[in-house]
Write a structure and sequence with these properties.
12% strand; globular; mainly alpha; 3 helices
């Protein structure tokens, strides 16, 4: 499983270097749509391994509130993307 996470994070790093605008993870635990049991943990790793890429979860508003502080705390500067596309 750690190899899968590492591969995913390497892809996200490539997105960042290529100038992609945003990366989002689905809040569907242990399915093909989202292998991570906790999107905030994955997004925290994304925050630490990227420089400009915006990121966020695809989830409902109640879950979103709980994720916000966890993810922003791991970022070098505020880049968490919670539903806005601009």
């Amino acid at each position: 499983m750690s190899d899968l996470y590492e591969q995913r994070l390497q892809i996200v790093e490539q997105y960042d270097r290529a100038g992609f605008y945003a990366y989002h993870v689905a809040d569907h635990h242990s399915t093909p749509l989202g292998m991570a049991p906790s999107p905030s943990v994955v997004l925290s790793a994304v925050a630490q391994r990227t420089k400009a890429l915006r990121f966020g979860p695809l989830c409902g508003p109640n879950r979103l509130n709980r994720l916000l502080l966890n993810v922003e705390g791991a970022s070098r500067r505020p880049r968490a993307n919670f539903g806005d596309t601009q």
